[in-house]
């Protein structure tokens, strides 16, 4: 699970906090799926406001406990490994955004 | 508001939580402005500590309820759309950082 | 401490919240070190879930107050300045991930 220094790819996924995959939260299901596929690391963050495909603004600004906040998933790995997981991640994410971009790994340990 | 797969651009903006634009929070005014201009999606996150142009460290580490925490705004769209909004976003952001970088859209839906 | 518009580099670092550097939090020690070295700005965010080198899943999902949450540090500066700080940042980060990638600075002020 150690990533060599040099050229690599960032996989970044934006989904709603309340989206489900089976009986799990989609963002957590994605983390588990990436782990199962040997990705070197995954980090999940929660945003405070967003709008997207569904075109509604989701926010914590008003006291709406049912707000569907944005979850941001980041994973860095080799280009080959990221390309290998994209088909089933695309399949899991019905509503949301999946992007990749080139990065340089300086250190992973 | 659907974004095709392929080459695209990330617009990322860092501003202080307490910055205002008219009587609105600047970060929320930026989200509304990007939405009004048809951007496919925008996500706002709140950081916990930062320093920047003003050179002060802002933090949640001490119990300072008036801390001006960093807000991070991310939007992905075509290069043309991002370039079109940059002039007025630059005008709105007096203190802060605006960057762009190339990304590949794998899926947006 | 002002950054000119144009080509620049993002330095992004992922470490655990409980990691220490001397008697400080590692993420805060990194922010201070980058500030001391004149970086134009640094933003720190806290994630909600991750796994990495240590291969454990860290999460806020269960009520585990001792959870070692992921901290994400972002700094944008010229390529030269980022390259100059990488050696000692690599030395500070024993467990974690350090990446860089190219960005365009539209405005910093």
Automatic annotation (TrEMBL), chains A, B, C:
InterPro entries: N-reg_PII-like_a/b, N-reg_PII/ATP_PRibTrfase_C, UPF0166. It comes from the Bacteria. Gene3D superfamilies: 3.30.70.120. It holds the Pfam family DUF190. Coiled coil: none annotated. SUPFAM superfamilies: GlnB-like. Belongs to the UPF0166 family. This is Uncharacterized protein. It comes from Heliobacterium modesticaldum (strain ATCC 51547 / Ice1).
């Amino acid at each position: 699970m150690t990533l060599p220094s040099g050229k690599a790819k960032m996989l970044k996924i934006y989904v709603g906090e309340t989206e489900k995959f089976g009986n799990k939260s989609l963002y957590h299901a994605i983390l588990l799926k990436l782990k199962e596929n040997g990705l070197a690391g995954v980090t999940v963050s929660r945003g405070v406001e967003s709008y997207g495909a569904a075109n509604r603004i989701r926010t914590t600004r008003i006291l709406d406990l049912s707000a569907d906040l944005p979850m941001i998933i980041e994973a860095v790995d080799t280009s080959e490994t990221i390309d290998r997981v994209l088909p089933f991640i695309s399949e899991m994410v019905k509503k949301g955004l999946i992007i990749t971009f080139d990065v340089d790994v300086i250190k992973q340990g």
